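Ticket #4471: complex job returned nothing on first submit. Input attached below:
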Amino acid sequence: MLVLGLESSCDETGAAVVAADGRVLSDVVQSQVALHAPYGGVVPELASRDHLKNIGPVVREALSRAKLQLTDIDAVAVTNRPGLVGALLVGVQAAKGVAWAAKKPLVGVDHLVGHLFAVFLQRDPHEKSDLPEFPFVALLVSGGHTALYRVDAPRADAITELGATRDDAAGEAFDKVAKLLGLGYPGGPAIDRLAAQGDATRVPLEAPMLHSKGLDFSFSGIKTRIAYMVEEKPPQSERDVADVCASFQAAVVTVLIDKLLRAAESSGVRDVVLGGGVAANRELRARLEAAARSKGLRAFVPPFASCTDNAAMIAYAGALRIVNGERDGWDLVTTNATALPRATRKGRGAR
Ligand code: KG4
Ligand code: ZN
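Support reply: We reran it on our side without changes. The output follows.
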């Protein structure tokens, strides 16, 4: 079974063709980073307009790279939540049009569910990568979300949130700190690069909520501390900036890994999985693999293309729904909220 997936929840327009077993036949991502960079963040109205311009070409390109016609596709999957509603609408309306014209079933996909199953995508036809076994614990860490989940089966209703950020997402903190340091947008890759040259011990920053009992996170405090620090004593040299980056990154990575491994141990699972754009961070990847090994756990870190926003993960999560006999109607709607039950309240912590 072949599924055409569409993704337009934030600042990437994506289309992909994926088989029900996770084989990626094509995966096209048109990034809007350059469009939003001058504003230091995503401008929702600009995002919607750019999706509108690109969705048609991106879908055609995905079919062409897979060497397929629309008639070869068995179903259409589309991100319908959570995200910027105007941006989501573009993908959802396009998906309805394509599914209607091709007389194929349509399924909506929760973007977070897409990220959580992205580890099962097989991008290289010559290499079968090791896959995690259910149940596993996953850390989804991106610009919009930071949360820990227990995943018991390949279905959205088998996903349980164990803890989440009470305020900013980790990627959002990377972006805000980079902005404070004048490093441009998006900030994650810039901080990652500079941190490698910095000395994390020169700037004392504690890992936020490291010693709290639960599995919640908070990243707005550390950002505010850096804002005060930069205001009081602006970094004088590139080396000073690199030291702040190294210290900030080490603090964030420490708490992410600590809580992911704690979640795995308290859930009694052996496999831990990383997803979302921040999973591209080199310190996070390297330290997680070492820390998991030392505890006898297996860490699964998908390739970069599967971590950042892409339509292949949406097609795959859609295929799982289709296999379960699920379908959506032409009345499929968009919303900015995830369908996954939340365990953590913004600004407050555990429910
Ligand atoms: O998953 P994603 O592409 O989009 C969202 O759904 O948010 O994640 C984008 C986020 C941005 O905040 C970006 O700064 C961060 O991922 N990011 C990184 C790195 N590469 C991207 N953060 C830390 N280190 C990186 N190497
Ligand atoms: Zn995402």
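DSSP finds eleven helices and twelve strands in the chain. Closing as resolved unless it happens again.
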